[in-house]
UniProtKB/TrEMBL annotation:
Substrate binds at residues 12-14, 27, 90. S-adenosyl-L-methionine binds at residues 48-50, 92, 133-135, 173-176. The gene is queE. InterPro entries: 7-CO-7-deazaguanine_synth-like, Aldolase_TIM, QueE_Cx14CxxC, rSAM, rSAM_sf. Its cofactor is S-adenosyl-L-methionine; [4Fe-4S] cluster; Mg(2+). This is 7-carboxy-7-deazaguanine synthase. Mg(2+) binds at residue 51. Residues 18-210 form the Radical SAM core domain. SUPFAM superfamilies: Radical SAM enzymes.
Length: 210
């Protein structure tokens, strides 16, 4: 399998339950809910995306022909530290490409594996930390995992629909964009009234890291 990767970089996980944790991010190219082209945004199934996942032109991006080649690059991006290795597979939609072979190769190199997914594609076995982020109007089939991170607000999506599902953590993430300040106020108010939910701030944007 050839993996199409937009970019690979070392940073701190900015969002959700693992915020603040050093991680290698592996951003796969492509998504099933949006082409990534601005002219298609208005007709896409997911219209609020904050990410460029088109092509393979980012830092350490490319088409990698073997799992070993990609896993070795992730290890090199982490650097020399032997312990607490952590990789976040994201995108785009990582579950279009992440397979058991890559999971095994990355585990062999001592990494704990997290995934950020839109929840429309079933995950392979072996993921250590699955964060799913449902999008209104889509067929959302990944209904269990470690973390549910709901971008808020989304028309036609009530957090109450989700709060009894088998996730360990429930996070509301204010939708970034023109209404970001109002969305943050609304998310704060929702958490205060519904303490099942915690507020996820995109801390990497606040502190100016990737
Ligand atoms: C860019 S997505 C990639 C992974 C996967 N496709 C997904 O949607 O979960 C990574 C995370 O950013 C969130 N996200 C995307 N656009 C956002 C926005 N405008 N404001 C807040 N969070 C956003 C997604 O919901 C997801 O939790
Ligand atoms: N620092 C940092 N944390 C993140 N958490 C989720 C991200 C993503 O784009 O999936 C992301 C990202 O792009 N950067
Ligand atoms: S599903 Fe994820 S990557 Fe795809 S367009 Fe939506 S937020 Fe962006
Ligand atoms: Mg991001």
């Amino acid at each position: 399998m050839t993996y199409s990767v937009k970019e690979i970089f070392l940073t701190l996980q900015g969002e959700g339950a693992q915020a603040g944790r050093p991680a290698v991010f592996c951003r796969f190219s492509g998504c099933n809910l949006w082409s990534g082209r601005e002219q298609d945004r208005g007709t896409a199934q997911c219209q609020f995306c904050d990410t460029d996942f088109v092509g393979t032109d980012g830092t350490l991006g490319g088409k990698y022909k073997t799992t070993a080649q990609l896993a070795d690059l992730l290890q090199a991006a982490w650097g020399g530290q032997e312990r607490h290795r952590f990789v976040v597979f994201t995108g785009g939609e990582p579950l279009l490409q992440l397979d058991e072979a890559l999971i095994a190769a990355v585990h062999e190199r001592g990494f704990e594996i997290a995934v950020e997914t839109n929840g429309t594609v079933l995950p392979p076995a072996g993921i250590d930390w699955l964060c799913t982020s449902p999008k209104a109007g889509t067929e959302w089939i990944v209904r269990q995992g470690q973390e549910l991170k709901l971008v808020f607000p989304q028309a036609g999506m009530d957090p109450a629909e989700f709060e009894d599902l088998p996730f360990d953590e429930f996070w509301l993430q204010p939708m970034d964009g023109p209404d970001q300040a109002a969305n943050t106020r609304a998310a704060i108010a929702y958490c205060l009234a519904h303490p099942r939910w915690r507020l996820s701030i995109q801390t990497h944007k606040l502190i100016g890291i990737r």
